[in-house]
Amino acid sequence: MNDTQHIASAFDRDLDNIQALIMKMGGLVETAISDASKALELRDTDMAEIVRKNDKLIDALEEEVATEVARVIAMRSPTAGDLRTVLSVLKISGNLERVGDYAKNLAKRTSVLAEMQAVDGTGASIRRMAKLVSVMLKDALDAYIQRDADLAADVRARDTEVDQMYNALFREFLTHMMEDPRNITACMHLHFIAKNIERMGDHVTSISEQVIYLVTGEVPDEDRDKADQTSYVTATKES
């Protein structure tokens, strides 16, 4: 093996290690989404607390990915396609960390909502929306590993469905608040949760766009239709 082949082999090993971290991180984030939404529906504060604590594991993995990427750039000096791959990994890990944060936010609200009167049907609706985002995330990560731009484009298109579900939930919450003022506080918390899930979908979409960039060398240039029709009605503060 000559020096060039040796360097290429070493880079491939480094990249495999980083990709393994990304997949581990993705698995933790998928679990966080599922458990946080399940905890909300079941009003299970213990499960919600586990989601909050496990967010530290996701944060630690993001830091590990950043450290490994910096090391690879310093030691291997990747160029062209290799550099694009390394930088895409860094952006994907950042998006995964943000999705994990939103799942943690969902878990935080669960402990508050557990002290309030349940609003009929909303927990199940939230969980269906979270399930859609979780499946999108799995497919986006599969697209990354398989370098499948078509699957990534399909994930990107599905974000419109997330927005539509969010709009439907927003209207549902308004109905509950008008029918019974005692639901107002709970529905405000639920709206915050739904908005966080909608933002999860945006970050998953960003991951799929990174995959398309990685495979084709081009960022999707057409504007993606956003079906969120509530932005002019409300502004949600991230926490």
Strand-helix topology:
Elements (H helix, E strand, L loop, with lengths): L2 H40 L2 H32 L3 H34 L8 H25 L2 H31 L4 H33 L23
Helix pairs in contact: 1-2, 1-3, 1-4, 2-3, 3-6, 4-5, 4-6, 5-6
Mean pLDDT: 89
For the termini, the CA-CA separation is: 52 Å
Using the CA coordinates, give the radius of gyration.
20 Å
The tally of beta strands, per DSSP, is 0
Number of helices: 6
User: Which range best describes the helical content: under 10%, 10-25%, 25-40%, 40-55%, 55-70% or over 70%?
Assistant: over 70%
Give the overall shape.
elongated
Give the amount of beta strand, in percent. under 5%
Largest sheet: none
Order of helices and strands: HHHHHH
Give an overview in words:
The structure is a single chain. The chain has 239 residues and is mainly alpha-helical. The protein contains six helices and no strands. Helix 1 runs antiparallel to helix 2 (45-76), helix 1 packs antiparallel against helix 4 (122-146) and helix 2 runs antiparallel to helix 3 (80-113). The longest helix is centred in the N-terminal third of the chain and has 40 residues, at 3-42. It starts with a helix and ends in a 23-residue tail after the last helix. The model is unreliable at 231-239 (pLDDT under 50).
